[in-house]
Amino acid sequence: ESLVRTFTPFYFLVEPLDVLSVRGASVIMNCSAHCETPPRIEWKKDGSFLNLVSDDRRQLLPDGSLLINSVVHSKHNKPDEGYYQCVATVDSLGTIVSRTAKLTVAGK
């Protein structure tokens, strides 16, 4: 029995791109990672993990993409604008982090 561990491919198929949105629109930040073992996908915004479990506006799609429903943007509240990264983890292999994509919300 060989103890040599074969290299398991683990990589992003799709990484998020910069998006320009308007208030009230829906946005999808695309992300998809490939591995024999399906990766666990999480999203970071401005360096912090998003808790999507209790989020009624943002949801993780089956392919790993992030859907933001009805972008919120006002003078004093800009919760959606910022820098997003997709983080894919396979416990036995480790974690890969996508490029950073900027979501900009256009003013009036």
UniProtKB/TrEMBL annotation:
Alphabetical GO biological process terms: cell-cell adhesion
Entry-linked SUPFAM superfamilies: Immunoglobulin
Keywords: Disulfide bond, Immunoglobulin domain, Repeat
Residues in the signal sequence: none
Domain Ig-like: 9-104
UniProt keyword annotation of Lyase present: no
Keyword presence, Disulfide bond: yes
Pfam families according to UniProt: Ig_2
InterPro entries per UniProt: Ig-like_dom (IPR007110), Ig-like_dom_sf (IPR036179), Ig-like_fold (IPR013783), Ig_sub (IPR003599), Ig_sub2 (IPR003598)
Similarity comment: Belongs to the immunoglobulin superfamily. DCC family.
Protein name: NEO1 protein
Organism name: Promerops cafer
Name of the gene this protein is made from: Neo1_1
